[in-house]
Amino acid sequence: MPPRAANPSLEPSLMPARHVSIIGIPTCMRKVNERVFHGVNERYPNAVVDATGCLPMLIPAIGSKVDVCVMLDRLDGLLLTGSPSNVHPSHYGGEASHPETMHDPARDATTLPLIREAVRRDLPILAICRGIQELNVALGGTLHQRVHEVPGRINHRSRKDSPDGPYGPAHSVALNPGGFWRHSPAQRK
Questions:
Q1: pTM for this predicted structure
Q2: How far, CA to CA in Å, does 146 sit from each of 59, 94, 149, 162, 182?
Q3: What is the pLDDT of residue 65?
């Protein structure tokens, strides 16, 4: 049988063969058909590759089974993703959660020490949604568990009817003059 001709439209685009920065992405624990998986929404690793050309490395939610110092020695940054779960209130002295609130104790046990060490090392961190909760709690902050119900606070959750689904724009973001993102390529356009 002759070899099949390559179909360029089906071949994945390859990352450059140079030193590629590695961005760690902590995973969530999910139960699917009675089996537990480590995972993240595909949008996050794809965004790391597409927007930065960096290599995403998924960090399993295994808590103290990993030496965060050794792991961070290999990373050039962290992306703390959103998730349907929230940081457990025991980590910030909060009250018991609403019964419908999801938690991911394995992710908490992994990300909170990881963040503290990454901050100590001044490693770049981008936190999104749950990741902002983690960053705040890791640095000693507390949370309003249902901030969208606090008078005077905006509902930062994306609209259910958004054409972009749960990843659509939810609110505006103000950039600080002279800050890192003010000098990003996207701001120079």
A1: 0.79
A2: 28, 12, 6, 21, 31
A3: 94
